[in-house]
Design a protein that fits this description.
The chain is 7% helix and 50% strand. By secondary structure, the chain is mainly beta. The protein has a four-stranded antiparallel β-sheet, with no helix packed on it. A four-stranded antiparallel β-sheet has the order 8-9-10-11, with no helix packed on it. Strands 12-13-14-15 form a four-stranded antiparallel β-sheet, with no helix packed on it.
Length: 266
């Protein structure tokens, strides 16, 4: 995605691995594009026409427009699970919302994230794992002051809440920004890194490396008999793959994690 601010031109181009131009599409003048790809190579893109209107579109790998629609929102991030859903985090009338769409662009579900405030530039980011679970991270604030903590909320592809994590800042810090966030494809570790400012005017960096509990032992995007067998055959052992909660032993807690999510993603 290329923006030329002086001529108000926006273009979407595709280069091959050698850098040769494959196609070049002119889009309406816009800014702030977020993109993601599904396992078929289709490109999902959301970009702002102005502060409250976004265009959400899908292109095939050969540059044909599959569909597009306009949405009233200020998009912050987009992430695509390998076979869908497509997730967009966006402010709508000042409230951060997480929306899940089918690959055909139909809204499946929507959740509000009221802890995240629009005027604090929270830099909401989305990540998905092979199961299609989504994790939203953003800086947030416990009171009406400046962002002081990192918030992570997770949902399954069906919109079932996976809980909320809060990582408080240093007590003497008054501002915290998340500059980068990543999730490994198996959905086991979420890593956030960023900057903070202290009351004394010092700068510092932080890294949060958090273990998530995924029920998908083999990471193939489906919780099935293979995952159940991996836990049962290693029961009582310390094999790290089936030790889903990372407590050093494969036991009934790991077994329940698989059973409660049996069939997810399949
Ligand atoms: Ca599996
Ligand atoms: Ca365990």
């Amino acid at each position: 995605m290329l923006h030329n601010y002086s001529t108000r031109q926006t273009r979407l181009i595709r280069l091959n691995a050698s850098g040769a131009l494959q196609w070049d599409i002119e889009l309406p003048a816009s800014y702030a594009a977020y993109m993601g790809f599904d396992s078929a190579g289709d490109l999902y893109i959301v970009y702002q026409m102005d502060r409250s209107r976004a265009r959400f579109a899908v292109y095939t790998p050969t540059g044909e427009l599959r569909w597009e629609r306009e949405e009233l929102m200020n998009a912050q991030s987009l992430a695509v699970a390998p076979r869908g859903p497509v997730y967009i985090a966006a402010f709508v009338q000042g409230t951060l919302r997480l929306r899940a769409y089918t690959v055909a662009g139909q809204l499946m579900w929507e959740r509000e994230v009221p802890e995240v405030l629009a005027d604090e530039f929270p830099r909401a980011r989305l990540h998905v794992d092979a199961l299609g679970r989504v994790f939203l991270s953003a800086s947030t604030t416990p009171q009406l002051s400046m962002p002081r903590q990192a918030l992570v909320v997770g949902y399954t592809a069906e919109g079932r809440p996976l809980g909320q994590l809060l990582f408080p800042n240093r007590a003497d810090a008054y501002l915290m920004w998340i500059d980068s966030a990543s999730l490994d494809p198996r959905g086991r570790f979420l890593t956030l890194a960023g900057r903070l400012w202290t009351d004394m005017g010092d700068y510092d960096g932080f890294v949060v490396h958090h273990r998530l509990t995924s029920p998908d032992v083999d990471g193939n995007g489906c919780v099935d008999e293979a995952d159940l067998l991996a836990v049962l055959l290693n029961f009582g052992g310390s094999n790290s793959a089936p030790d889903l909660n990372g407590d050093g032993v494969v036991d009934d807690a790991d077994l329940l994690t698989v059973l409660f999510s049996f069939g997810e993603g399949c």
